[in-house]
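Our consortium's second objective concerns turning raw sequence data into structural hypotheses that experimental partners can test. To show how far this objective has progressed, the report includes one record in full. It was chosen at random from the queue rather than selected for favorable results. The single chain below, 55 residues long, was entered without modification.
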Amino acid sequence: MSHTFQSGIHQVEAEVQGQIDQCWYKVLFAKIITGTLCIVGGLSLGVKALVFNWL
């Protein structure tokens, strides 16, 4: 089960207790992809705001 979609607090606690062992490269890949999508989404909204302010 992938734990990349949750906040992370429970995953850290479970990892420290030895209950789960996450593949670091899968988590890193998912975080990079979702972070990039959020940045691109924010930039596109920022561009739209600039265009509407000029009109």
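The partners drew two points from this record. Helices lie at 9-17, 24-54. The mean pLDDT is 77. Both points have been shared with the crystallography group to help prioritize constructs.
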